[in-house]
Amino acid sequence: MVKCSMLGMLLLVIFCQTLCAEPLGMEAADVVVTTGIRDRMPVDAVESYAATVKNLFCFSRITGARVDETVWHVWYHEGREVAKIGLPVRSSNWRTWSKKTFFKASQGVWRVDVMDGRGQILGSQKFHLL
């Protein structure tokens, strides 16, 4: 009986360690809206910018992904989805970005959500075009 209890406790400890060792899953470690990308990094961080800008980029660094997953950059203007861009993730520490072209009527509040394939938001960044 004691041997059976000890064996049960040992199995429980091994099971708990296995659960704790599981990776947390995919995360957006960094989400930055920027005017450009250089050497796979954002050149600046935009919180507000003149509405005369032609393009902005959303940079995201994804960690904890399995090989060949996809993240989505979903761009919103005044709460309305205007673009959804699928981006491949090919390692557990991957940098990627999307580009959005703006037009004259682009003033207002913008947001970019970084989502996984199930639609879970991994990160988000808000900015204003003045």
Automatic annotation (TrEMBL):
Record-annotated DUF2914 domain positions: 68-128
Signal peptide interval: 1-21
Keywords of this entry: Signal
Pfam families noted in UniProt: DUF2914
Protein name, UniProt field: DUF2914 domain-containing protein
Provenance organism: Syntrophotalea carbinolica (strain DSM 2380 / NBRC 103641 / GraBd1) (Pelobacter carbinolicus)
